[in-house]
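Figure 2 data, in text form.
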Amino acid sequence: MSNNSQFKQAQKLYGSCKYEESLNLYEQLFDENPKDFNMRDLISYCWAIYQCRVKNFTDENQLFNATELITELIPQADLNYFNTCPYTFSVMKVLDFLYGKKEYYNMSYWLDKLNPVLLDETRNNYKGRLYRSKKEKYYDYASKSHLECAEWDLCIDICNEALDCLNSFTNNSDTWYHWRIAKSLKELHRNNEALEFLNEVLKVKKDWFVFKEFAENYHILNEDEKALNYICEAILTNDPVNIKVNLYCLAYEILDELNQEIAFRHVELCYLLKVESGAQIPDELEDLMIDETEIDKNQLIGEINNYWSDFKFKNQEQEYGTVSKYFEDKNFGFIINNKDESIFFHKNEFKGDNVYVGQLVSFYSEKSFDKSKNEESLKAVCIRGE
């Protein structure tokens, strides 16, 4: 059989989904005379490699070796003009694998094999969920790996490049570019600049770790009064306390010169959470000789939260009212205050388990936004039964 016939046979096998047979024939032909392969043949050969050794790889060495071979055989295609490219698909498969295992230090080598200009911005919608384009995924992976590898300047550069060149952002991914720039700027001691980017993040995300990042920057700038306001916001979110362990350490560090008693309560909770998780206890905590067996965790958390509630509303008058409506299946309702105003509340703002219509309560009010009416409104927070 002539080489031309064998190439056609390999293509036919591939078209019949007999990928292993197709790959075996391509490998035989390539071993005999690689010069017989034109670019079309090489691309077909690479698709066979992709199907057998990349898409359904059996171990990571097979994945890496197969992708390395593909990148040696063919160049990266411009997906703005072509629909598919075994080079790009294979490198992306490697990056997906490494990112999933958090092997950020190994991602740089493979990221360097991709030219983002040749990646497309096509986003796929599958079962109502919108997925990132390859270009957006590239910038997500590159910025995350630079951040985790402490390559601060590179992280800033790649994030700015993403913000400049991407035309759309999936699930507010531009927020994460601002976040990574802010984190990098803090490490470069450019804290005022970091705060500018954090303000962009805060427009979208009100998570506790965003508030903590603000607090750290202000603490570094010796603006502890501002830092305490953000620590307050972070502690009073409804996230589990065990993920906030470093937040309590930061609160202790700042409060130690202002209120040693409440500061020590924070460090007790920090110590207790580290013991519970099996984390290594820093020497400075060990030196405090804290006995976790003497600590009532729930009481300690309540004491800390009450302190920060009082701190948050120290300049605001407490209000009183009656629960007028409560939708138990939706965990929200309304309170009629003493001015006969109806104020929205969510169950998670109650400092107690029981909520019922007719219940007398005390609370504070905060500005909110009523999406159904498209207007500003008030919501009740820090609610206590009377």
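Caption note: Strands lie at 125-126, 129-130, 319-327, 332-337, 342-346, 360-370, 375-385.
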